[in-house]
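Practice set, problem 2.
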Amino acid sequence: MVKTILIVEDQQVLREIMKEYLTDEGYGVLEACDGRQALELFHEHDVQLVILDVMLPELDGWSVCRRIRKVSSVPILMLTARSEEDDTLLGFELGADDYVIKPCSPPILLARCKRLLENRSIHYSENRLSGGGITMDLPARTVCIDGEYCNLTHTEYEILSCLMEHRGIILTREQLITRIWGYDFEGEERTLSSHIRNLRAKLGDHAKHIVTVIRAGYKFEDSP
């Protein structure tokens, strides 16, 4: 099955470069030049990944990200020409899974896309993970807390499943970063911290099961 990637970028030259690299790798590509067109294409097609520029006409990337997150956990890779910490953190708070600062190397962008898509395609030998009132249905990629559905982003889901899969075992920040983003990750540790903070906020009272071990990492405990 061909995986479809939606590129949302108002600069045609950049769209064409990204499209060429992605199609050469066998991906299907949809293109949008503004935020409103992006949402229309997203709802009309089965999209497996969104590459989303921040600065867009009609509707900016933040707004597009927020609206997609209301209905889908599809991986979202943000493109931004701004490197300020606040912009990066805002993207994570709205549900982005990763980000790339423009101008970026097409091979690096391709590697980031592959990593997000590979994580989403992981198959587990068991169908469920559960503990502390949290249940993960792995084939459906859904999470319930005390029986109530909890809408997580792609990256939040990957972090939670990794911790629950290794419950009681301390995973270092480096181990989590490698599991989620790969060995070639060039971001900073605050990227992981931002996603874990957002995950804990969504888990509410059940966030206590994700335990921070000072100077070591994180672990999941059924009864902390």
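Problem 2, part (b): a different protein.
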Amino acid sequence: MEQSQTKVIKTAIVEDIRDIREGLATLINFTEGFNCAGSYRSMEEAIPRIKGNVPDVLLSDIGLPGMNGIEGIGILKQQFPDMTVLMLTVYDDDERIFDALCAGASGYLLKRTSPAKIIENIREAVSGGAPMSPEVASRVIMLFREVRPPEKVDYDLTPHETRLLKLLVEGHNYTTAAEELGVSYNTIKFHMRHIYEKLQVHSKSEAVAKALQNRII
């Protein structure tokens, strides 16, 4: 138990601007409990090298030379579904936000996010949260209000799984959902595996998006 609480969060970076890339690497390496597992200037460089040293968290830009960040994380999430991905970008338009979340990103941060907040957001994402810059969160809410949902789809979720999914949609992470339901963190992870299988998704953000799109809750 003690070992899991002190586990170092291995974080990798994909960012083409050298100053930003090196600044993030320094921030991560000099923050207790974190380690920079790799920094790459493109997805073409990152994808083959990440296979040999898979991080817990990937911080990725969207506007990259060659393959863009959204395409890249789609490939990486298929290969490493347990890897948490956070976008860190200047773009705050609906299309890129939606595409990034559907590709498997667990959070979406703007580059003006402070260093302290970036670290806080990484911790939140590792705990099962879906951190977003305030402006992005507002756009996501507006986006779902504007999208007319289809008829309700039945994914054969149990009442307990449906209740857990509802808590995630309301903004809970695995830890707070466990407290709300009076069960252990590992129990939540066990149920989430079944939910992911039934919904055919690979991340909390994908599960939340599918729940909202298909009126599951």
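Answer key, part (b): The mean pLDDT is 88. The CA atoms of residues 167 and 177 lie 6 Å apart.
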